[in-house]
Amino acid sequence: MDRTTQLTARHAHHRGRTGPPRTPASPPVAEPGEIGSGRDGFTHVGAVVADVYDPAAMAGSLHGRAARVLEDNWTGMSTVPSRGLYPHQWSWDSAFIAIGLRHLSPLRAQTELETLLDAQWGDGRVPHIVFNPSVPLDAYFPSPDFWRSSTAGRAAGAPRTVQTSGIVQPPVHALAAWLVHRADPGLSRARDFLPRLYPRLAAWHRYLLHRRDLGGGGLASVVHPWEQGMDNSPCWDAPLARVTPAPARSFRRADLHHGAPEDRPTDLDYGRYVRLATDYRDRDYADGYGDFAVEDPAFNALLIASEHALARIAKELGATGTARHARAERLTAALVDRLWDPAEGMFFCRDVRGGGLIPERGVSGLIPLLLPTLPRDLTDALLRTAGGPHFGLGGAARLVPSYDLTGEAFDPHRYWRGPAWFNTAWLIERGLRLHGERERADALREAFLSTAATSGFAEYVDPYTGEGCGAGDFSWTAALTLDLLHQPPGHGVTPEGTGPFDMRDVEGMDDVNGVNDVDGMDGMDGKRDTRDMRDKRGDRG
After folding, report:
1. Is 459 a residue of the active site?
2. Are 207 and 200 in contact (CB under 8 A)?
3. Which position among 227, 459, 483, 505 bears the catalytic label?
4. H helical segments located in 124-192
5. N or C: which end of the chain has fewer CB within 10 A?
6. Compositionally biased, Basic and acidic residues: which spans (predicted)?
7. How far apart are CA 347 and CA 330, in angstroms?
């Protein structure tokens, strides 16, 4: 029995020991009358696929291939995005990875998030990289000796026992934690998974809402393009133009050893990234002083979605969750007020330092489709924009491009300047399904799965052809493939309210009193949780 088969078999056995088998929110569906093993690795019985792994069927299936990627990229405590290009733990990667990994091993998915949050800073920020000390310094740049987190980050409460970066990434973590909990509530409760994570997640959100409200309008700002996750998007070109690049001789790019230069950010862009990071480090990671500050629609939409998830976590822990839902509603209103352009029918980034919206159409402007209470007229406008000439959803583009297909800066192969990415496709698919666009969601799901399969789980792809670019066997591509395989075509939001994004999120919001959801749990109160998670983790699968 190979390692992937052992992993999936152990999960099935574990569920049998800890309680009744978990019933998926939306079990995969076969053709009527079909019996046998499907390409997803589940046993098909009639029109329903049983929630039982079939190792023999998995071996060559898309499900089995995706599981193999996650197994190969597992380090023992977390999952690297790819073995060569990204040899450490990345923040929002781990959140997406946990969302898919929960279908194979809820325990390992919990460990993924716990390991990341073990490196949280005292001020609440979750660093975008947690460095593996066994990886050589020259394997990735910027390396730990560049960030100097334990010294430059001391005033902000950087951990002393692990090296990290000093910037952040989009806050998908509360959403991931809720979905991981729902994958095996019995295991989660036995391990106190949510009670241990809730104060850390609350502190993370509090950091963003207070320390990063640099525009004063209620939204979080990013202070570096790497924080938003879409590193070299044309949306950053105007604010980056104010930044004097670091000299090329002052850094060495390790990324060019693993990818074609024409697929990566330019040296000029990289010099500006290094300058911003250097200046931030040399200010001891104090917020509010840099030349780059941007309010981004995707970053804030994910914060809102995670606020709704925190409300559910609070309810699981015995509170009402109404204060969190109310906060998410206030953020949604601020998002519309500050970033929506009715004439263009989409959201745009706001340059906090330069003032005004940045007139570049990026996929970030479509991500607010995730939001359950987005006004219907805005949803309709976003759908028209997504399906129009700029993004080609359901038409010219195989997957949603990262940037305007008609834009002057469009490049189908250069990182975030045009290629399609699987995490943004997954987010848009979830948004389409949330708002009742099942046919469009089904088509995007099918395109996602077929492109993931043919590209070898590529990091990103040409939006027209699906040709793979960047790293292969990319972890979040594999993880989100697993998640979509477990959610069959035709389904909508789940009646149990356990789907990723659900209109049930807004139930009970009339009773909003503005108090903390859980007494004593609305953050860490400046203290790190010193309980030793390792004593409770047991076998990691």
Report:
1. yes
2. no
3. 459
4. 144-147, 149-152, 173-183, 185-190
5. N
6. 524-541
7. 17
